[in-house]
Amino acid sequence: MTTETVISAQDLSLTFETNDGPVNALKDVSLEVERGDFVSFIGPSGCGKTTFLRVMADLESPSAGDIEVNGTSPADARKSRAYGYVFQAAGLYPWRTIGGNIRLPLEIMGYDRAEQARRVNSVLELVDLAGFEKKFPWQLSGGMQQRASIARALAFDADLLLMDEPFGALDEIVRDHLNEQLLSLWEKTNKTICFVTHSIPEAVYLSTRIVVMSPRPGRITDVIESPLPRDRPLDIRDTPEFLEVAHRVREGLRAGHSYED
């Protein structure tokens, strides 16, 4: 079976110019993400995980190197609505209903009202929020708000989903539930997902591949192919296979600290 490359980065570097001098956020990052992959990025704060995601989304421009999204530039991918982006905070407009928040990108893209309604109903079903279309964000829990944010990113049916630590502020019980739901959604839609996290168990549980990054300047210290099956109940986290991958991630994080700027 042939694979199709969705993200291709070669020798990517990014330096921010600040009043205190240059800050090297990424250095010589090379990675390929194939269609249908679930790739998690993990590393210490400030290692460039979110910056790399933002480069994919054309929210930051690299200082050196090359990156393609769906075989084109990030700018062209953005213009063609090639991806949905889920931020750390749900970012829902409080004066709009849940349905209104999900409809917003569809309104901007010019879909007619009937198609908007069809898509809103479809993604609400996908994220288990059917019946909440007329509620306002303040009437939903934090976990439900994040599911609404994911629904909004899915509404225009982009094949690529970029997720910047969407569950980081949630308690462990809610996070576990959303991890299960996200895996189910990935299985149903076959999206390609790039997911930023600080949690080793979350990265191992969700991913087909785990990208371990070093402290700034962000480099890739390891890319781990998961041996776990696609069907993953939560108690898989107690198995020797899971613990072995988690140990390798932890070792990769330790090794990253040996790099010199």
Write up this protein.
The protein has 261 residues and is of the alpha/beta class. It has two domains: 5-82 and 159-256, P-loop containing nucleotide triphosphate hydrolases (Rossmann fold, 3-Layer(aba) Sandwich); 92-157, no CATH class. It has eight helices and nine strands. It has helices at 49-56, 74-79, 98-109, 113-126, 142-154, 172-189, 200-206, 240-256; strands at residues 5-18, 21-34, 38-42, 64-69, 83-86, 160-164, 192-197, 209-213, 220-225. It has a six-stranded mixed beta sheet, sandwiched between helices. A three-stranded antiparallel beta sheet has the order 2-1-4. Helix 6 links the parallel strand 6 (160-164) and strand 7 (192-197). The longest helix has 18 residues, at 172-189. The chain is globular, with a radius of gyration of 18 Å.
Strand content: 15-25%
CATH architecture of the largest domain: 3-Layer(aba) Sandwich
Radius of gyration, in Å, reads: 18 Å
CATH class of the largest domain: Alpha Beta
CATH fold type of the largest domain = Rossmann fold
| Total number of strands | 9
